[in-house]
Amino acid sequence: MLDRSIFSPDPVTPAWFAETMYRLGPFLADNSNSPPIAIAVSGGGDSLCLAWLARTWRVNILAFVVNHGIRPESTQEASWTIERLRKMNIPSRLLTLTNLSRGPGLAARARHARYAILTDACRETGCVDLLLGHQADDQAETAYMRVISRSGSNGLAAMSSISIMSGIRLIRPLLNVSRQALRNTLKNAGLTWIDDPSNKNRHAQRVRIRYTLRKLGLRNYYWQLAMDAGDLRTRSTTTTATTLAQKISLLPFGWVRLGEELPEPHLLTSLLRSISGSAYPPSPNAVARLYTSQHESTLCGVRLLRWQKNWYLIREQAAIAHPTPARAGVIWDNRFKLFLHSLSVNVQGLSIAACGFGLPRHVRKGWPAIFCATLPALWYNNQRVAVPHLNIADPEWKNFSFLFHPPVPVTGESLYVCSQATK
To answer: What CATH superfamily classification does 14-228 receive?
Structure first.
């Protein structure tokens, strides 16, 4: 591998980037017959440098520029970024968020919305890989924030070079590169970028931490802390996958058969997150209490119960999402994706909601009513017309199916755990 110091200010070379991408592959062929590699570009120094490096690496790329609309300058900045990408010979697509409003939790809500619109855009264009511009300073700052918030070792792992979200592979190739190195790379290329004024606002926790780490010379220490914890997390993920394959059944109905004994808390945490449809894991203390009690209970929108000697996790009825208008590709309850198998199907007036109670036992194929009540069903004029998981459907509603599609795989890591905006 081409060596470079983590926090060196030296510009990044195309050769170093190409070797890094090779290690993060494999990737689809670089031709027009394959979907492009997607890049999230805000116009800031990190993501714009990533786009420039990606262009030196391959031809078939596509940039997504998100106009979040939070600041008055957002629309103008998005337009500037698209024009800059055009001059770099990088095709781009503008994605506009329209449902963000100022108020509590704006940063977190904006992150959720950005990731959602980016992964939706990837699916629509066939992209399976999305490059993100998080870099070494981001990693060190996130690790420091975890330390002062007393996160466990898994939390210290901060961001992974590769993670999965909604079936899209998120790749962060610049975690070994400093913020200054990326800006120096752009300067050498004769390119300018947008400086978000919030990055200099010392009222923000992350900005204060940024200056603290530089002043005390602790960036490398906390970066290494995050990477070491990441290695530990990778080994834990491998163990989790092995346990899943040997002892636990993740059912397509959105239920989990745990077996006669509850799995260890770390695995139980991942399973609870997936069945709840949440991007966040539940509180470690709450999971520990659940594991220790060995009693039926509910936690973070999931019910733990016993049936026929086995423990199961199912969705809590009261936590299930409200009815959602049916359309191809819509995600219901943040867990199930709807597929239409005929273009001629009319979905006007059709909605997705929980199946509810009232199905005869033979229709439920022996499953308890409380389980089947959580399944996604299609409703028309307040009448249940299809439950695809049970092969129940009126004749005109047979061309539908649902895929269990939680935002974070059981063996994956939450993509929202760090307080870091998409680049």
So the answer is: HUPs (3.40.50.620)
